[in-house]
Amino acid sequence: MKIALGILKNGRTGTIIASSGKSILYEGRFCLENFSEKLLHCVSVLGVSKDDVEKIYLSAPFFSERQDCVFPIIHFRIAPELFGDVPAYPYYLLNNVKILQSTPENLAEKIEENLSLIKNASVISTISPFGLVYPKQESKVVSIMVNFGKEKILTSRDYPHLGFYQREKVLIIAGNFLVSALPLIYQIKSFFSPLNPGIYWVENEAVFLEADFLPGSCGVYHEVAPLIQIARGCAVIHDCGYALALFKMGSTFKLFQIEGTRVNELPLQFNLNSTAFIQLQRQLYDIKNRYSKDLCGTIPVFNFSRYDFADCDPFRFYKVDFMKLKLLRYIGLIFAPKSLASGTICEQKNLFDIKKNLFRKLYLVSRRYDLLKSPLAFSQEIPIRYLTSSFIILKVELRERDGEIEGIKRQRRR
Amino acid sequence: MQRITSSWIEPLWYGSIFLGSGGGGKSELLASLLDKYLKDKDIPLMGIEDLPGGDFFCGVGFLGSPELTEENLPSGKEIKIAIEELERYTGIEFRGISVVEGAGVNIFYPLLAALKTGLPVVDGDAMGRAFPELQMTTYHLENLPVTPLVLVDGTYNVHLFLEKQDTFLLELNTRQIVCQKGGVGYFAGFPYPGSVLRKVLLPKTISFAREIGECFLKAESYGELVDLLLEVTSNSFYGPVVEIFKGTIKNISIFSTSKWKAATLVSKGDELQLLFQYENLLAFKNGHIAASVPDLICAIDLDKLKPVNNNEFYEGQPLTLLGLPAPLRLRINKALDVVGPQCFGYRTIYMPLEKIYKDFYRGVYF
């Protein structure tokens, strides 16, 4: 029997699950100290060998609690004095992080003030506005930190997301990943050694973790990862080829579209003055218009919000039992479609070569670990204009081919 | 005098994209920020006819890459510095803010400046749409210099252009700074009294953008949207909007530099080539000219019934291209020398929409 393991961790403790197909066979709690023992317990309770463990999924959000006053992550924000206000990030992201904001001129002073914190930190991250294309300020921090003997240093270039706040959040998430998830990955590797089961990081898709964490693949869906997994799990359990899942987060609705096992968020239209209900109504109206041409029959909407909605053609709303959420999330985690992703920032003139090389690298990884049978290749190019050179943010991805989705769509069209 | 409140932001958002004619950029963060500020405040909007002749106004705006604004979101502090610096040099106390480019991000940025300085905004602009360069304004057509101008770059360094300078040269100089200092810049310049602005500015473009945006919010079908747009544009100094093409994007090609791009749209055996750089500039249907700059070529995503910028195009996207005649002042020979197709490097002459779609316009007007 081939099994897949899922690992979720919040704070000091976490959960290991084991599944075969849609059946959850094992669920056990662990803490960092007894993680290997729990892995052994899982394998022995199920009566399987290490050989039978095919895949291991680590699910976002993944963080650990700070135990003393030592901050494992030091984050340098190098920005001019007049730099705009930075939004507040979720508490759990900042729990392990000490943010040191400094102007480029006062950097040395800031480092001196916080010398003891820096010495005790295991991960350093740094960001500056426009750091993607003008890495001078960040390079300065990197060179100083290298002199302090720091190895894990994250910069804007490693996580090429456009937009200061988005990139900063992703850098902090990546820092948390290195602090919280990496020690577990080492334990998993040593437990299964010499075998090498695939280890994946799941926010939306299951991103294969090569020797090092593939840049650009964390952070984007970090906050909504549990919702995505629940939505996917629900569609898998109910055998829906196409479905929607509705959640409410704070005052806004979150609507997800599930096609086979692929989930994507349908952003509610940019709509400042309308209430959340009107925004949702408009989105559903758009979906109705878009899909009525292609699809016949009803579209199931799994309703996880606490509101009741009346069915209206073509939507049928299903209330889901909140007791089942945990199970749905586990299924959604295990059924995450596999993907290999990479990203970089490059000049327009080198785009073709760099894109080719990145795809070649991903194909090699895929072949070496036998990950994706006949993958689909995707790429996204975001041009940045008005700079000394034409820069492009390039994201490339290989995705699992989901033959099932097409089959279901065809069936519904009939 | 009208007042801009938070209820303006959403229609202005769609109107600014439409008048951006494929470019001009957009920043959701900036619009959300303004919406937040305007919850308990408003901005007076002065009609051009109400401008006191002796009061001075300064033009403010944003230069560079709208995408990069999210790297360093403008807070309004930078434009306050620029305006104060300009006041110090000119010795003039400004009584209001004028809009230079009434489309894209540059509709919203002057509103932020107005909020931060407490000054009113003038309902008019100097382009009537989005254009990429400083000389492409009605000030240039009236031989009025842009200087004195203060530019604050993305790293908050202040650059002064105080002496009278050729607008083309100024465009090169400011662009060079913007490119080297983070790809964004904020300027305060065009210091002119109300009596001059009354002659120079294209009137009511801010409220026109709002009216355009309202059409997108009201329409429930494509037919309804076109009817609403037709009604609004026919009653403006632009002219009635015309459908250029309705189809699907077959491919998008990028030529030698990323500045030159083309999208091919197809529909029932017909093919349209849309040539664009920052804005949509030329359209050729089955090899014949279908629209040309300075007329506005606006793209509507048929799935969402919303206007889209050309950097959001993707293959397979169902689109409609609508043509909106440019204001007459942008169509005179002197204007075409700076905003005509040849100014963007194309070897073709400007062909007014009214000439290309004679039958349509005959039907609308007569």
Describe, in plain words, how this protein is organized in 3D.
The complex is a heterodimer of chains A (414) and B (366). By secondary structure, chain A is of the alpha/beta class. Chain A has helices at 35-46, 91-94, 107-113, 115-120, 136-147, 164-192, 225-237, 276-292, 325-334, 351-368, 403-413, and strands at residues 3-10, 13-20, 23-31, 53-63, 73-78, 97-102, 123-127, 152-154, 198-202, 206-208, 242-249, 252-259, 262-266, 299-303, 315-319, 338-347, 376-384, 391-399. In chain A, the strands form 3 sheets. Chain A has a 9-stranded mixed beta sheet, sandwiched between helices. In chain A, α1 crosses α6 (164-192) and α7 packs across α9 (325-334). Chain A is globular, with a radius of gyration of 23 Å. By secondary structure, chain B is an alpha+beta fold. Chain B folds into 2 domains: 2-203, CV3147-like domain (CV3147-like fold), CATH 3.40.1610; 238-365, CV3147-like. In chain B, 33% of the residues lie in helices and 28% in strands. In chain B, strands 14-13-12-11-10-17-15-16 form an 8-stranded antiparallel beta sheet. In chain B, strands 4-3-8-6-7 form a 5-stranded mixed beta sheet, with helices on both faces. A 4-stranded mixed beta sheet of chain B has the order 1-2-5-9. In chain B, α3 links the parallel β3 and β4 (96-99). The model of chain B has no long low-confidence stretch (mean pLDDT 90). Classes of the chains: A alpha/beta (414), B alpha+beta (366). The interface between A and B is large, with 36 and 42 residues.
Write a short abstract of this structure.
The complex is a heterodimer of chains A (414) and B (366). With 414 residues, chain A is of the alpha/beta class.
Tally of separate helices of chain A: 11
Fourth-tier CATH superfamily name of the largest domain in chain B: CV3147-like domain
Rg of chain A, rounded, reads 23 Å
Number of strands of chain B: 17
Instruction: Please list the strands of the largest sheet of chain B in the order they lie side by side.
Output: 14-13-12-11-10-17-15-16
What number of domains of chain B? 2
Task: Give the strand content of chain B.
Answer: 25-35%
Distance between the termini of chain B: 35 Å
Tally of DSSP β-strands of chain A: 18
Based on secondary structure, the structural category of chain A is alpha/beta
Straight-line N-to-C gap of chain A: 37 Å
What is the string of helix and strand elements of chain B? EHHEEHEHEHEEHEHEHHEEEEEEEEHHH
InterPro entries (chain B): S-Me-THD-like_C, S-Me-THD_C_sf, S-Me-THD_N, S-Me-THD_N_sf
Pfam families (chain B): S-Me-THD_C, S-Me-THD_N
Domain S-Me-THD N-terminal (chain B): 9-161
Organism (chain B): Thermosediminibacter litoriperuensis
